[in-house]
């Protein structure tokens, strides 16, 4: 347990370090996948030669975009030693530890409306997002 005085003295950096060190001990659904996103992912994986029953959707965060950070979504057949694996709505999700703090609690949805088609990240950690929804800042 972290003493309250340590939180004040070390601030956000201290908490993030402890969180990252203990990441393997945390069992939460970090990214939820909506029903519409799940169906679209299964179709896209099949079209690209991936098997949604055994392969992964890799979700990450990288520098860039109009708001400073952007989402990265790819398919992958392997996992790395720094990956945390989650499963929701029959989709296996791989997230590299360095992206974990940015994505905790995110809901991945698919929108096929008149304003455009695509995956939408509903991220409760984002303090600001751009108009297209592909980048954010904290």
- Treating each run of at least 4 consecutive H or I residues as one helix, how many helices? 3
**CATH architecture field:** Sandwich
Tell me the number of structural domains: 1
- Given this structure, which CATH class is correct? Mainly Beta
SSE ordering: HEHEEEEHEEEE
Major β-sheet, in short? 6 strands, mixed
Distance between the termini: 26 Å
Q: List unreliable stretches of 5+ residues.
A: 1-21
Q: Please indicate the percent range of residues in DSSP E strands (runs of 2 or more).
A: 35-45%
Structural class: alpha+beta
Across the major sheet, the strand order is 4-5-2-3-9-8
| Rounded average pLDDT | 76
Structure explained in plain terms:
The chain has 138 residues and is of the alpha+beta class. It has one domain (28-137): Hypothetical Protein Aq_1857, Chain: A. The chain contains three helices and nine strands; from the N terminus they run αβαββββαββββ. It has a six-stranded mixed sheet with strand order 4-5-2-3-9-8. A hairpin with a 2-residue loop joins strand 6 (106-113) and strand 7 (116-122). It starts with a helix and ends with a strand.
